[in-house]
Amino acid sequence: MTRQRAPLTCFVGPMNSSKTRRLLDHLSECRDALNYSIRVYKPALDDRFDIKEVRCRNGGCWEAIPVPSSTKSKVDSLFIFNDIYKIPLKKRPQLVAIDEIQFFDKNIKDVVTCLLNDNIEVVVSGLNRSFKGEPFSSIESLLGLATKIETLTARCTYKDGRGKTCGAPATMTQRLIDGKPAPYKSPVVVIQKFDDSKITYEARCADHWFCPGTPLSRLKKRPKK
Ligand SMILES: [Zn+2]
Questions:
Q1: Are strands 38-43 and 65-67 parallel, antiparallel or unpaired?
Q2: Which residue from 50, 72, 100, 104 has the highest number of Cβ atoms inside 10 Å of its Cβ?
Q3: pTM, full prediction
Q4: 71: Cβ–Cβ under 8 A, 6 or more apart, which residues?
Q5: Ligand 1 centre from 39 Cα, in Å?
Q6: Burial class (CB in 10 A: 0-12, 13-18, 19+), 143
Q7: Antiparallel, parallel or unpaired: β 8-13 and 148-151
């Protein structure tokens, strides 16, 4: 029986939770065990490492196609669609991987749906939440399509007054500006540069994640009867 629709796997978590390593492991498995042809994409705006590679912090890398931006802060999902469908049918990849999926624009859901319907497996990795603690719409829209979702955690790097590191499972990404928590009003997409000491990111547990100015719930409390 032929497969009706290819699977979608999502690796999500805060910063330093080995999302990209899990993505690269998945690619290696599919190449080595299944001999899949694979095509990897990443946002061109993420230039912390070599622009034509997806690389994880503790070694391992894979050649990747950088995807340009459609707006100042979003990456052009249709670039992937056009890039895949210009390839003759018989030469198209069996698996498409997309790193840093949180940066892609709202067309990503339609693009991924098209690939899955054409029996092209898709694997994505990305941040579960912004530094504001809010989900990225691109990832949210894909989770509903996923065959498998792996939620990863890091270790909280918060240090108390005595310099002791918390170490609890971290689910949040803390943005710091000159070592202080970034306010809610600052823009969502700011890439950390090695030569930029002003803005840094850390993995934090919920107790040690701070975002000053976060609005309270807009839901009104029900009046007591
Ligand atoms: Zn903590």
A1: parallel
A2: 104
A3: 0.87
A4: 105
A5: 37
A6: middle
A7: parallel
Residue 169 Cα to ligand 1 midpoint, Å, equals 8
What's the CA-to-centroid distance between 166 and ligand 1, angstroms?
5
What is the three-class DSSP state of 9? strand
Write out the residues surrounding ion ligand 1, Cβ under 5 A.
156, 158, 166, 168, 205, 208
For residue range 154-207, list pLDDT tens digits in order: 999 999 999 999 999 999 999 998 889 999 988 777 655 555 558 889 999 999
In DSSP notation, 56-93 reads: -TTS-EEE-EEE-BSSSS-B-HHHHHHHHHTS-GGGS-
pLDDT tens digits, residue range 89-134? 999 999 999 999 999 999 999 999 999 999 999 999 999 999 999 9
Per-residue pLDDT of 125-166, as tens digits, reads 999 999 999 999 999 999 999 999 999 999 999 999 999 999
Catalytic residues: 100
- The rounded distance, in Å, linking the Cα atoms of 173 and 210 is 9
Answer left, alpha or beta for residue 66, where phi above 0 means left and psi between -120 and 50 means alpha: beta
Average pLDDT, the chain: 88
